[in-house]
């Protein structure tokens, strides 16, 4: 059982952690942040390269004619894609939290993804779980660096 669960997410990937105590605190450094799983969003990776056949945006102008704007609904597609990924993240997190007895949840994501995660959380996490939102993209940090950053800001207990 772990009191803390941590999710680090961005548009293409999410990582799931728990903070685990050490077996022999007088001999080992701890507690330790342990990575349990990750999810990938392959559509996010592909979207810059192949989803949109024509990457032009902005204005379309006929020769000698008046310019007019066009909307390819790319933003709506991007929003739906990230919202769907956020729902998958929360569904996966719900299973992890049920098995380890989480009391504190730390969500780390850039502001846009954090908004989608907040919407996806609606009613999925028990009320007694304290949620801490960190509007930073920590997706590329090592486990040790992530733990150090979160501990330095007071979100997790520091390693001893």
Automatic annotation (TrEMBL):
InterPro entries: Host_attachment_protein (IPR019291). This is Host attachment protein. It comes from Nitrococcus mobilis Nb-231.
């Amino acid at each position: 059982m772990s009191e803390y669960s941590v999710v680090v997410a961005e548009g293409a990937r999410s990582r799931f952690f728990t903070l685990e105590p050490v077996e022999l605190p007088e001999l080992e450094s701890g507690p330790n942040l342990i990575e349990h799983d990750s999810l990938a969003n392959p559509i996010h990776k592909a979207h810059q390269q192949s989803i949109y056949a024509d990457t032009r945006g902005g204005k379309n102008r006929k020769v000698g004619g008046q310019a007019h704007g066009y909307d390819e609904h790319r933003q709506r597609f991007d929003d739906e894609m990230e919202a769907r990924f956020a729902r998958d993240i929360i569904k996966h997190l719900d299973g992890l939290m049920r098995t380890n007895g989480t009391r504190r949840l730390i969500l780390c994501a850039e502001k846009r993804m954090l908004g989608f995660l907040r919407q996806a959380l609606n009613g999925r996490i028990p009320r007694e779980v304290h949620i801490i939102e960190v509007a930073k993209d920590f997706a590329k940090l090592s486990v040790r660096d992530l733990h150090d950053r979160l501990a330095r800001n007071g979100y997790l207990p520091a390693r001893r």
